[in-house]
Structures are given as structure tokens and as C-alpha cells.
Amino acid sequence: xxxxxxxxxxxxxxxxxxxxxxxxxxxxxxxxxxxxxxxxxxxxxxxxxxxxxxxxxxxxxxxxxxxxxxxxxxxxxxxxxxxxxxxxxxxxxxxxxxxxxxxxxxxxxxxxxxxxxxxxxxxxxxxxxxxxxxxxxxxxxxxxxxxxxxxxxxxxxxxxxxxxxxxxxxxxxxxxxxxxxxxxxxxxxxxxxxxxxxxxxxxxxxxxxxxxxxxxxxxxxxxxxxxxxxxxxxxxxxxxxxxxxxxxxxxxxxxxxxxxxxxxxxxxxxxxxxxxxxxxxxxxxxxxxxxxxxxxxxxxxxxxxxxxxxxxxxxxxxxxxxxxxxxx
Length: 328
What we know:
oxidoreductase; amino-acid biosynthesis; Rossmann fold; magnesium; 9-stranded mixed sheet
């Protein structure tokens, strides 16, 4: 694995270039601000009447209509939601100048054919491995966030240089840039979201909470045991790795983890994980995402409403209220 850092990366490919950021959400805001603070000429492309224009200007950034931002840009970073990349790209492609570099922070829309770029364009990936809020706060602390980088189309012969310069300008070169591909980044990210951190872990936490409550444990104690300690284990793993985490917890906790963990994550679970990876690679999830967007996000809205009414969320709100009162 090659890890490139600031000292290995030439910023020249971005010097004097204008970068248009499309999408002012979690990643868009952070990347735009980091670019600006690195001395890069940045404009945020917005739709007419967008409420984000006030926020953009309050942050000291330039705002413009999407069509104008794109027409004047040397680099266009598409940071809007993945599921609208196809319609957004179709809208902007006629405005893209010959030789423009188009960037993404997630490989999904290129890997699964939502976006098929004009042959004269450079197409690159810079994917910070964490949320935009953390990308911004780390930059402000003089630190950085590891990112993956890749090139899908190198029309200019310098797409890699542009990608790496961009990664350095948003602060990721401080931590390290790892070479990947659009396919690898997209497949690994989608698998993780469904089968590990964002999908499986919350379900395990909820199942543990419900099991304890059904067994007569108070909801508050069940919450503190099953959810409250999650931050502790995450911090220990970040600092020491999984093996190191196990070495510093109590013998009781370590033996319990040794005996119980394999009973929960057994061969059947691993087989279902393999199924999810195969489905991701076959494009099944990409199709589901487009269907969800076409439905107006009906399943997601229903799931969000249902989640807010669960006992685990009620318990969370009670504990937060107590904590707030104590702090006050």
C-alpha cells in the first residue's frame, strides 16, 4: 500500500484553477471551506432560490447558479446525493468546458453507470474516510483525514496530479492518500454501510437493548450497557486496534467477548455478508437507491418515523434530559 502525504504531492495542478463545488451538504461545505482556506479559488454552485446561499455567503464563500459555476470552472466536484448524479450530470454536461476535471467523493455513480462522462473530461475520485464535519474540524486543527483516490478517465494526462492536489488542498494529504479505484471504493463503502457499521451494528445494539428489557432489566440500564459503551470501544479500537482493545479491558469483559462474540457472528452471518457483497457488486443496491429516489424516499421516511417512536429512542431522550439538567 502506497500512502502519499503532503510532502509527496504537488499542489501546482490546482494553482490558478477555479473549483466549483456542487452540493453544499456535509461533504460539500467542508471541502469548499478547506479548499478556500488552502488558497484555492472556490465557487459553490446552487440552484436559484436555494436557502443555502445565505449559509455559503456567511461562511465567506462565493455562490453562483449551478450553470454559471460550472461554465467558469476548471474542476467540478459533484458532492450532491448519489441518486441524483445522473440528472445533475446531464444538466451540467453541456456547460462543461473541454478538458474540465470532474471529481467525486464516492464511486457509486461512476461504478454503476449513473454517470458516463464525455471522453474529453478528466474523472477522478477523492473519498475522505469520514464525515464532512470531522474533515473540517481536523483541517482546522492542522490535522487531516485519510482518503482514497482514483482516476477513472485521464483525458489530459494529468488527472492523477489534479486528484492528488485536490486531496492535499482539502487536508487529506496531512493524514495520507491511498490509491484505489472507483469500483473498490464504492463496493467496500456500500458493503460497510449495509453489513457492518451503519447496518449491522445499530441492529445489534437495538436487539441487545430489547433482549435485556424483555428479560426484566430497566430500559435505562439496558441502554447504558448496550449503547452507552459503544463510544468507549470505538475509541479503544482506534487507539490500539481490535487485539489491543481486548488486552486492556477486564478479564471478565475479554472472556465474555471471546465466548459470546463467535456465537452471534457465526458462519451464517458471514454467509449473509458475502451475499450482500455479491448483491452490491451486481448493482442491486444501486437500483434500489434509484427506485427509492423515484418514490420520494417512501421507505426511508416510513423507517425514520417508526424509529423515532421506539422504546430505545424514548430511553435515549430521557437519559439526555437528565444529563442536560445535571449539566445546567
